[in-house]
Amino acid sequence: LQLHHGGSYRCEAKVSNLLAGWQTSAPVPVAVQGVPVSGVSLMAQPPGGQVAEGDRLVLGCSVAAGTGPLAFSWHREGAAAPLATGPSYELRAVRHRDGGRYHCTATNGGTAADSPPLWVTVLGERDPVAPGAP
Fold first, then answer.
1. Any signal peptide, and if so, which residues (predicted)?
2. Quick one: fold of 38-123?
């Protein structure tokens, strides 16, 4: 059952012993209530959000409950706009600047919920700058 299935329903039946033939019931309103989005969780590969510089990081978002078409957005602390949309977010070659606190938001058009934050730690050292280099 989906939210768009709500509306007014009636049935028709052919009654063989009546001259009228078809009989129609009175309309019955059916309201379908959506289940609010809840239990939003964030998974990371590699687990724990610790990744070596240059390696790949994949974050995934899921919900425990919620009806309707779900939409996901990705956020990093300090960034005004969402980083991406969709149930997963991938960084193909992580850099130190990618470290920080991430979360996903799930919405079904009526309600929205955030995942707990995940701290992404980028391991490894930056390339040393040679003495005298600009």
1. none
2. Immunoglobulin-like (2.60.40)
